[in-house]
Amino acid sequence: MTPTRPLLLTIPDAAAEIGIHRNTLYRKIAAGEIEAIDIAPPGSSKTRIRVPRAALEAWAEGRPRIVDTSDRRPSGR
């Protein structure tokens, strides 16, 4: 059986998923670069921030490509 991947990720898990520090993720959320939601009950004084996996995927898709390997050929070594 294939393990299921959670739909919503905690901040530490989301940061690890895309290879950045959690503080960097908080900054990207604050800047509106990555979507996040608060799953705390209405009226709660605490927040429970989660990042949808789809938001991470959308962010990654929008990142510039640094190296285009589509036309690379083996060096023959």
Automatic annotation (TrEMBL):
Coiled coil: none annotated. Residues 8-63 form the Helix-turn-helix domain. One of its GO terms (molecular function) is DNA binding. It comes from the Bacteria. It holds the Pfam family HTH_17. NCBIfam families: excise (TIGR01764). This is Helix-turn-helix domain-containing protein. It comes from Planobispora siamensis.
